[in-house]
Amino acid sequence: MSTRTGRKVGTPQGVVGTSPLRPDGIPKLQGRFEYAQDLAAEGMLWAATVRSPHARARIASIDIAPALAIGGVHACLTADDVPGRATFGLEHPDQPVLAAQEARFWGEPVAVVAAEDLDTARRAAAAIEVGYEPLEALTDPEEANRRDEVFRRMRIRRGDQSVRGAVVVEGEYEVGMQDQAPLGTEAGLAVPDGQGGVDLYATSQYVHVDQEQVVASLGLRPDQVRSHPTGIGGAFGAREDVNLHIHLCMLALHTGRPVKMVYRRSESFTGHVHRHPAWLRYRHEADRDGRLVRVEASVVLDGGAYASTTSAVLANACYFAVGPYTCDSVAVDGVGVRTNNPPCGAMRGFGAVQVCFGYESQMDRLAHALEMDPLTLREINALETGHPLATTGQVIQTPLPTVEVIKSLQAMPLPEAGPSDLPTELPGGSGLTSEPQHVTRGVGYALGIKNLGFSEGSDDYAQARVRITDSGAVVETAAIEVGQGLVTVLAQIARSALGISHVEVAHVDTSKIDSAGSTSASRQTQVSGGATLEAAQRLRERILGQFDGDVLDDEGVWRGDTLVTPWTALAAGDWEETVTFRHPPTTMTDDNGQGVAHADFAVAGHRAVVDVDVELGLVKVLRVDTAQDVGLALNPQSVRGQIEGGILQGVGLAVMEELVMGEGVILNPTFTDYLLPTILDAPEVEALLIEQEGSWGPYGAKGVGEPPTISSTAAVAAAIRAASGREIERVPVRPQDIALP
Amino acid sequence: MIVELTVNGEPVTARVNHPGSLLDLLRDDLGLPGSKSACEQGECGSCSVILDGALVCSCLVLAADAHGSAVTTVEGISEPGALHPVQEAMHRAGAVQCGFCTPGIVVAAADLFAVNPHPTATEIKEALAGNICRCTGYGAIVRALEGAEIVADR
Amino acid sequence: MEIVHPRSIEEAIAGLSDGAVPLAGGTDLMVEVNFGHVRPENVVGLRRLEPLREWDGSRIGAGVTWRRIEKEGPTALAEAARTVGSPQIRNAGTIGGNLGTASPAGDGHPFLAAVDASIELTSAGGSRLVAWDEFFVGVKKTARAPDELITAVELPDELPERQAFGKIGIRNAMVIATVCAVVTRSEDGRTTVGLGSVAPTPIRAPRAETMISSAAKPTDADLAEFQRLVSEEVRPITDHRSTEEYRRHGAGVLARRLLERCLR
Question: Does domain C162-263 have CATH number 1.10.510.10?
Fold first, then answer.
């Protein structure tokens, strides 16, 4: 038995608060990491999808004979072949697995085929003859509202509705349809198990909800479908909803062969939901000192053809319609309409992004009307711990350092004056459109707030298991690593809690563990992290109790200076602990939208610096600096990665990212025309992490994924407004909006 | 037709039945899935390879047109069992998130460093302007490559 | 499918006469292949055809890449080359391929229009030089016959000393031009304006050119009138990338700025 004499008390490596390197970093850098696109199986078939070329059409006939006549084609399936529930949906199962009598959006799947190779599958899909009778498509959200084609209406009334302020500003704002555009398109492999069941490996943010929907539509028992986490190239909300999952399982069970499908980019743009385009109307009233006394808002979101998460996105938009500000007289009316536009649903920020552009534009207008510094106005009205949320009245219980965020932004140094003379640093870049004399600089600020975790009474839980192994411990979870670094942070939490250095994370399938919920709503660090922390703590306590030890470390269990149970002995035992973690309960709000709808909140602020060529309407976003409420940064490098990446998505929405619609058709479903910011479009970012403990997340951590995207868009818009003098009532801001207002 | 080419220093032979890209040939026929397909039109750089000494998008190379050519993919960018300094630097800087763009960025960065061992931030950005990353906001990528001590070797 | 890799122009032309598709850098054709729009069964691979890569003074071989033009081309053509796609695209894409595709937004076209370049087309019967304005006949349509190969671009022996390129796009790399333009000005005041993305083919702005060419020292009023005339002469459309109104405006502003650069 060894003793601790001369041995430094071991601090485990890679604990919380440090930035250990990603375990999947090197495989990804070497091209060895396996993504859903890379999967293959013996005897595998390839699948392709037939999609409606109309925004709305009656399906009069489908003739699969020409496709089946092609050599190597094994299956052509239509709505008639769906064995179980004909529809699916994340919240309401209203979307056909395959369109039956009517196709309701451009790109809606009508049939799927499986063939020996991809080329044959695509030719077979093209050979299927669908008789469409185009119908009039409802694509105008206002018209849909008039016709009461709605998924949900929201009505929030808080406080005395008769209050009026001395200073009033009104505005109407519009947000275009953004796409998550994860770099990996939808992909998956379904493998029949030979006993009527199926194993699915597909791009997903939420394998348990995929599994439930596959089970329902295939008419199988839950134990017959196993959904496996697999490598995915980004998500950002695009992978919460089912798309190819049920199709693949149908084809696999029909053919008895493994079936693989990978969406092309243009299919991906129709195959997942988008960020809701929004139309906002605001009226802010304040007293002469700048205190908000009343806010009225109207929110219209276009949900597209099917429900997806429109109801929840609308709720979020309405609950955060006032932003991180206090106000005791509030009226918000919202509607999520049903149209024949593409279905919209989850995207990073989930409704909070759209309204932020509205309320922050209003706060700037109000500051202008009051002749007040815009940050001072925000500070006067800052929502903090102990205050009621202006909309729902929920008293904020966890730390909400809004004032510190504002003061931090104020203190950050501005870049040197004047535009650069480097072409790449000027608006227009190497297009050489703009010279320094054509350019005006603008600075803009915005703050944003969002809930963390699921809301409105959802049973939001995550299960995790911590198990002792020969080398240390493993955290088993069905939570999805989408690139954000959950695989690193769960291990860090377990290391800190157990006191050991060697912890791995294993992403296991739906048959091995209960749900971790979706990798969305900035929730996994807090919820799966919470489950991991509790499991690891319990395991450590049980181990120490069993061996009457006082310290657990990489060598084993110590009692004083004596190693009483070496790791090998521990590993020989059957040590594991499974915990289901639930965050503080929330409730559905009442008829006036009042109640405790949210479990936690985060606030962030952004300051954008832009150079604008007003005459041509071109913008160069130079810097977006930020202060963000993070609770505690469990992995500072990952937090910074989330901040920088989230900001660039916000910049994208501000100046270039939009799916352009024409009568229900996406006019730009390619990377040539749906423009994502390149490295030459990316601003410099300085990020201040505001750490205040007190949240219920592990070690006080808060989710950090969404706040960077919420107010960065509004900050860039504000900076463009400052530089150009234009009103800027719409994002993305297009050159003509500046040059030809 | 039969296509013969050199991939990562090894001669390979493949049958090409229909007009497809070098990217598909690499991924589906030659067992080299490291190059990624994300846009099919040369607008993202995820499929970047070095073809006869030049950085190109392998999705825009007709597989049959690579007959007689030499191709280096991400799988061949470093010596076996070792990391290219670009890979090492990106790993340390946290420049990898979902990783789907990463192989293309590694190849493009290695191509830059082969001719310019000490690039400025502007030169790094110009060289990577054809590689879309949706996760990182590029900050960590630039920091990684600015700090990389990289010796030209190719 | 089959591909031939000719070793001479003659072999390439012989290949084409069998109805095969010419393939240069692949940056346009392969997009069509990947999207399933075309399915070429016979291809003539030109990428390594050495004679097409020759660049002799004012004669630029069709196989010269944008990468090389970016480094070695005349000022405004080099500036245009730098905005073609990305480094990957410039390494593969060629000036001849750009002409073969004949996109209204082709980044190299305004220069060719502004300097009155000709395109050399070669068939079994020999070569002919086609003036740029006869070469482009419509959106992605050219005067090239199926059995002809684009073999070179012929620039005038003397290029205007002052020349400037500009391209409006809403991203700082890899962007299709909303408007692109080249303005040249000679010592004698003669000014030309080549414009792209504002008509089915690249165009010139003759009225604006005539007006400003006669102004030895253009005043602010002359510049404003020049801008106005360019805006009037373009024939843009509204599509998902921009509006007719903005393209008109942008063409005028850009041309005026490029002229100002030439006058400095």
Answer: no
